[in-house]
């Protein structure tokens, strides 16, 4: 009988920050050694960050990763470290190396290369062929990489080579259906092989993907021994018993609320924080309209960065209601952000006055409405330029899907936190955030009046979103079936939705691909996000 004490490094390793990532690996390696671990495992491509994309085509980048790996190997006396990195030997591989006794003892290559959704591994990597196994403290430890665990063969190869415990290093992005799928796969692999499985995942935001951590320990009988929290950076200590092939977590952190809303909110907060901080911006700016989308975006930004790094701007016209003015001011004062009111009516009038001769003979239409939105976009971009704060766009997935947004207007922004969040979920998150505040004995983060009011762009008198769109409950259900479910119009109609409504919604989705191509990036939190994952042609005869 043998036992193994080991650690899983559930941390963020930013893309391209090779020297900084290596330094973090070194610090955590030392911490694991001091904590009595014989092995510490780091996430997939920890040295390069994931996904490094076309950085992998630069020889100097690959050389830098190898140099740092060589240096780290020299610091492993007394402990073994499993480190993810790109490996070039004529071809480029997604690799994991076991560093021990001051050397790179072995290197294994990822065998299953995902090429779906957000993944593009086959563009950059060649597949490996074997699973590595090493003896550590009398325990035979198999080592595989991320997608390898989603297919039976790599784990079976490790078991055939004598593995008792399989360590899987991952950079697996979060979406609202991911964790259940992960656990099902891990349970299946454990039952197939009889091996216990330690699954360590990266944490952090990288452009449009967010990694949640949520590392897992699975016993040899397929039962879950421990779950780490999502979006929490942590060194996770564990013990493995080879006789029973069971795992025990040693004082893993927990979170008080693991609900869907709490986890999604944490994903959006992490996405904002990492995008801003990794790109070196001092803070953010957003237009605060008095509506629910901008109100939720403001709450997220403050939770991500702190009130002192957030600026909110109300830009009223004659169509802006008192409810909007009051709601925006109340929220800005409550959360304590820098707040400005800039009346854009004179600017809109100037635009219309200048354009009137060219508009001769044309009746007023959405052009004049869009001028208001585009004036706001110009104003916000000017403030962003002057103060160096990155502009957040506040549109949601429902709007992006059907094009209910103004190009170069409210679509202005460098990052869109709600881009992959349906409107109905915006309401759920807003109510959850206020309930969370109530549990903490704090005032509501979003005024209830803003949540309860009918949604409106306020670009003309008595306007509501439902003048132009189906009710959001109906719209979002159709969109989810068409986008995430890839259902046909006939299949959606068969579920009880009116054929004319389905036809209209689908037409709007297909018609507005050109707008989405010009929209800001935002965190992917569903299984079919626009841009990074769902890629349709702009010019298409398929309707």
Automatic annotation (TrEMBL):
Segments of this protein annotated with the region Disordered: 446-467
List of catalytic residues: 44 (proton acceptor), 44 (proton acceptor), 110 (for glutaminase activity), 146 (nucleophile)
Binding, L-glutamine: 116, 172, 178
GO cellular component: cytoplasm
InterPro entries per the UniProt record, alphabetical: C-N_Hydrolase, C-N_Hydrolase_sf, Gln-dep_NAD_synthase, NAD/GMP_synthase, NAD_synthase, Nitrilase/CN_hydratase_CS, Rossmann-like_a/b/a_fold
Key words of the record: ATP-binding, Ligase, NAD, Nucleotide-binding
The keyword NAD appears for this protein: yes
Binding site for ATP: 287-294, 394
Family, per entry: In the C-terminal section; belongs to the NAD synthetase family.
Protein name: Glutamine-dependent NAD(+) synthetase
Organism: Dyella telluris
């Amino acid at each position: 009988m043998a036992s193994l004490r080991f650690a899983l490094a559930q941390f963020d390793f930013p893309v391209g920050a090779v020297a900084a990532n290596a330094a973090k690996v070194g610090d955590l390696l030392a911490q694991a050694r001091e904590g009595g671990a014989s092995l510490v495992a780091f996430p997939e491509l920890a040295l390069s960050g994931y996904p490094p994309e076309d950085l992998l085509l630069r020889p100097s980048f690959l050389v830098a990763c190898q140099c740092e790996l060589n240096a780290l190997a020299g610091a492993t006396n007394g402990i073994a470290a499993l480190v993810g990195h790109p490996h070039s030997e004529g071809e480029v591989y997604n690799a994991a190396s076991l560093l021990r006794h001051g050397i790179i003892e072995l290197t294994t290559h990822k065998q299953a290369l995902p090429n779906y959704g957000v993944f593009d591994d086959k563009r950059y990597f060649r597949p490996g062929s074997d699973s590595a196994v090493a003896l550590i403290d009398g325990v035979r430890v198999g080592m595989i990489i991320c997608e390898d665990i989603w297919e039976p063969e790599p784990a079976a190869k490790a078991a055939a080579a004598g593995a008792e415990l399989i360590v899987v290093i991952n950079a697996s992005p979060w979406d609202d259906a991911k964790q259940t799928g992960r656990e099902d796969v891990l349970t299946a692999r454990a039952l197939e092989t009889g091996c216990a499985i330690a699954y360590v995942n990266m944490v952090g935001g990288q452009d449009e993907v967010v990694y949640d951590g949520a590392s897992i320990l699975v016993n040899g009988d397929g039962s879950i021994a421990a779950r780490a929290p999502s979006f929490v950076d942590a060194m996770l200590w564990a013990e493995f018993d080879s006789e029973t092939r069971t795992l025990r977590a040693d004082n893993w952190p927990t979170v008080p609320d693991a609900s869907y809303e709490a986890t999604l909110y944490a994903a959006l907060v992490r996405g904002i924080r990492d995008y801003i901080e990794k790109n070196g911006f001092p803070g953010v700016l957003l237009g605060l309209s008095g509506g629910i989308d901008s109100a939720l975006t403001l709450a997220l930004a403050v939770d991500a960065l702190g009130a002192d790094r957030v600026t909110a701007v109300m830009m009223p016209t004659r169509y802006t209601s008192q409810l909007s003015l009051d709601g925006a001011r109340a929220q800005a004062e409550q959360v304590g952000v820098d707040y400005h009111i800039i009346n854009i009516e004179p600017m809109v009038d100037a635009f219309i006055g200048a354009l009137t001769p060219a508009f001769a003979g044309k009746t007023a239409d959405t052009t004049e409405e869009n001028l208001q939105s585009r004036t706001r976009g110009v104003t916000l971009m000017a403030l962003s330029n002057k103060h160096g704060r990155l502009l957040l766009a506040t549109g949601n997935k429902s709007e992006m899907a059907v094009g209910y947004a103004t190009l170069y207007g409210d679509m202005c922004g460098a990052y869109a936190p709600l881009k992959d969040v349906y409107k109905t979920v915006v309401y759920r998150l807003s109510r959850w955030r206020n309930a969370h505040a109530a549990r903490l004995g704090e005032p509501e983060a979003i005024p209830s009046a803003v949540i309860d009011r009918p949604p409106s762009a306020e670009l003309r008198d008595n306007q509501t979103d439902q003048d132009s769109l189906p009710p959001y409950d109906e719209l979002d259900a159709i969109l989810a079936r068409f986008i995430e479910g890839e259902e046909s119009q006939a299949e959606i109609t068969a579920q009880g939705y009116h054929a004319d409504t389905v036809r209209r919604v689908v037409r709007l989705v297909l018609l507005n691909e050109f707008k989405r191509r010009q929209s800001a990036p935002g965190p992917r939190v569903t299984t079919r996000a626009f841009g990074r994952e769902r890629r349709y042609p702009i010019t298409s005869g398929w309707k």
